[in-house]
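Input sequence (57 aa), recorded before submission:
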Amino acid sequence: TVAGDTFIGAFVSQLNKDLSNLEQAIQFANQASSLTVQRQGAQAAIPTRDEVINVYK
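Predicted structure, token format:
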């Protein structure tokens, strides 16, 4: 539930306007989505930016 929504939100939140960090933005979005699918619920399952960073240091 909401894995796709999490991916898109995380992706666009990290992407530079010039697309210079495309791979990094995709990786961040994948990591955020992976955390989402490990939790129950919808909105409550979406991780914060800090959670993604702390889990995938």
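Checked by second reader. The mean pLDDT is 95.
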